[in-house]
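#lab-general

N.A. 3:47 PM
ok so I finally got the sequence cleaned up, no stray characters, all 65 residues accounted for. can someone with queue access submit it? mine expired

B.Y. 3:52 PM
send it over

N.A. 3:53 PM
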Amino acid sequence: MGLMSFMKASLRLLKLAKKPSRDELWLSIKLCFLGVAIVGLIGFTVYMLASFIRASVQFLSLYWY
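B.Y. 4:20 PM
back already:
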């Protein structure tokens, strides 16, 4: 892909693009926040499970021997 074809494709894309309406913008913002919340919840769950497993292994290693 040459520079001229890239420039033509970019110009065509900019001509087709339009500013989102207020409803579309709020929907995008809500979906982004929902995605961040879901990823954060998954990360928090994994962290809590890892700390529980780490504490269990430490507890068992103290009283195993």
